[in-house]
């Protein structure tokens, strides 16, 4: 491969190609579960660089693994162990190309972080609403590749709903320019949706046109104690009836989450003397006056008989509530290795899922430590299972645990991946839980756009023989 690397270095110039020990940080995933090897890491600066690198890979038969912030939770951005794949990192393609405030759009390169896009929007007095714990490190390309969600999906939708146009380098190095900032465009197939959620298996997203929104100057935030998950669904519907679509976030948090936070994140102030069995972090947003909105939220909670609530009296209080919610993954990391699930079921089925999943797991794994939380406003739960062993040895029980969870999810007409993607972690499970015709169509799309299987092979779906 010396000829390939020499040509690639010539194409990308100084600092454009990394080899040897310089690539170690690109080969291990965020969860430290998948360790790969790679021929090299390419660091293009422009779409032209990406296209040229892909053409060279096609010429030499080198497969490609795209990587943004390397925050994948399913192994989607990690190369395999052969040492023959090229990682293409988008870290140097991180520019905000244009903010069109009048059109409520921002055009960005794939390597820009979500936080950088948010900052560019704020500078133009606009809002980019995508938000999750890794916003400072997750990059736009990866967020699009997994169709990421976060805490504001209830009101604004996930990355698919926040995207108007894309630019994509295809497997032969050709460039599809679909960078259109249009809300209406009825000219045939909407091709961007093929690449959003495809995890780089169909093409490499290089730029995107994303939706912006007006800044909502008022917000009210509360931690509301509920008796059980069914009460949380009732609260959601009651608040939406009383306040409408101003309900922007609605997060369910179990008692076990609070216990983990107290044990493993003692630096954070905790709001409850005794943690409730269940509670909801709810946020409502609007234009106008925060005090008036706060009063309206408090009145709605009282009218709905949810009077056991801690209502944030200041922006500092609200940030403290959100810091606790966003620290749950860190508390879990400090607790040890867990079997993680990113599932979604119809909102009405959330109570049944939580009740039945715990009973089924405890029957087979009596000491299972279940940590459940998530975006109940859109049906997406993070359902994580700890066993007695805190090391990677727990993965030996992962197939049995997954069988319990995914079988129940399927019976409730849900999905095994709501926002984290498939990667390698759920690839084989996907084959069991998607309709055979759907899988046939997915393979047909893959063959049409990547007939040589050079684009992130082994992720999402296994190549056909």
UniProtKB/TrEMBL annotation:
It comes from Chitiniphilus eburneus. InterPro entries: FAD-bd_oxidored_4_C, FAD-bd_PCMH, FAD-bd_PCMH-like_sf, FAD-bd_PCMH_sub1, FAD-bd_PCMH_sub2, FAD-linked_Oxase-like_C, FAD-oxidored/transferase_4, Oxid_FAD_bind_N. Residues 34-215 form the FAD-binding PCMH-type domain. The keyword Oxidoreductase applies. Pfam families: FAD-oxidase_C (PF02913), FAD_binding_4 (PF01565). GO terms for molecular function: FAD binding; oxidoreductase activity. It comes from the Bacteria. PROSITE patterns: FAD_PCMH. Its cofactor is FAD. This is FAD-binding oxidoreductase. Keywords: FAD, Flavoprotein, Oxidoreductase. GO terms for biological process: respiratory electron transport chain. Belongs to the FAD-binding oxidoreductase/transferase type 4 family.
